[in-house]
């Protein structure tokens, strides 16, 4: 890990690992010690407008982890106040993914849309206090009145004061009347808004009379056509937190600038004083982490769906073969930190490799097969060889695999003319067949038209059976194989980064980031073969295919034809980076 990526604080972002020393847990500890709160309650507030990605995972492992460490509770609340984009299917996907990582929200999910009536009441309260008003300015005009950041003559950004809306000083009575009529549907979409009356000269543009409600005739997936006004995020979010008596509202850094407004609404509405604390957003190389961008990948057909194994969504990672444990490990290693960072995707892959090394059984599969014929093998003879399921886990036991005179080996494991330092099969050379015998290449057949090798021939030495005491012949190469008789036809899907660039969003002006997608990020090998034990594979099963990587059985599997996704290759470049960089 380079210095730039080194996180501050502790590694204890994951739930239930005991309080660490990161700045969030420190702040919470202090709040309890000083009597600011007598308990801890957090919430994870996804908007149901997309599936969760690994960035959200950081957020909710912090939310659930902090609650668990302080024996509190974490609510799962859907912040669903944008009727255009939200949907019940997203709610279901989010629940499934949060549960997959082992987080428990107590069985009762909450919805901001259940608070519409209560939020409306709080809006009335603010109007009565004289700190909210109905405005007739259009969205465009409001923007113009608000003003913007500009560079001064020394190129330093400053923010000249904005202008008050001509409707700012309406009486409380008029505002109450107009707001009730907004709700009753008397005005067209966009004709009026309810705004907080704060300060049109505030240096923070968000504090310049932010919008609280807009008129939007759009059916909502939960409230239907009951409402034609919808609360804005900055108004809804703090007050929803407060209604749930959440003590700590933990969120990513982009909300830091919203905090004064968060506190303003809590103070003016005179509700439970939730405290907002921000942490760094997770970014990962070679991918994008924002629902908006992921939605585009899905909509434009760049991937097969939200759960495409190349997607950084939890559903995609799961389908790819990631375990919840490896994802938790990754999140705990990156720490919490107060400044945004870019994390190398190889760290995520490293965490998966470490986990699967411990738990995945080893099997043999040949992805790009060529036939190997053993000329001196007794005709029709089948020998059962004993293979170790997992050298890292003695309790995983052994299995028997058939060895016959016709096998499949990888095309790559034979060369007609070997390059330097090539220790696998070539005419005259010997290799060991994993768990079996040493064979010596005697010849091959080549398709004269295509130049493709169609068969490799060899002889075996009966005295060299793997593990036998009399076997003291040494060869430099060992290759894997599958007996042609009994081989299970399978499809293997190999994946590469979705984007070749480390930071896909850093494109020159005018270039659409989507055009930089790696069009070769999926390679489908439909003529692969696996050993007989793979015949019964079910979606979600994970294996190490010896010499090839870790693979997970895909839901596209059909009876007799398993489909496997390569979750991660065996080569761990991260370990090297760590060693070198320290
Ligand atoms: P996106 O940009 O992906 O649409 P969002 O913030 O709009 O994310 P929400 O559903 O509003 O999505 O997010 C729920 C929570 O997840 C928020 O508290 C947000 O702070 C957090 N979150 C979202 N993305 C990340 C990330 N990359 N790293 C850390 N936390 C994140
Ligand atoms: Mg958001």
Question: End-to-end distance, in Å?
Answer: 7 Å
* Range of strand content: 15-25%
Shape: elongated
In CATH, the topology of one domain is named Rossmann fold
Which ligands accompany this protein?
adenosine-5'-triphosphate, magnesium ion
Lateral strand order in the biggest sheet = 14-27-28-29-25-26-15
Mean pLDDT: 93
Task: Report the CATH architecture of one domain.
Answer: 3-Layer(aba) Sandwich
What is shown here, in short?
By secondary structure, the chain is of the alpha/beta class.
Pick out its properties:
binds adenosine-5'-triphosphate, 7-stranded mixed β-sheet, 582 residues, single chain, 29 strands, Ribosomal Protein L25, Chain P, binds magnesium ion, alpha/beta, disordered N terminus, Rossmann fold
Structure description:
Helix 7 (233-243) packs across helix 8 (259-269) and helix 11 (324-334) packs across helix 12 (345-359). Helices cover 25% and strands 23% of the residues. The strands form eight sheets. It has a seven-stranded mixed beta sheet, covered by helices on one side. A hairpin with a 3-residue loop joins strand 27 and strand 28 (549-553). With 582 residues, it is α/β, with parallel strands linked by helices. The chain has 13 helices and 29 strands. Among the domains are: 39-279, 3-Layer(aba) Sandwich (Rossmann fold), CATH 3.40.50; 365-487, Ribosomal Protein L25, Chain P (Beta Barrel). The N and C termini lie close together (7 Å).
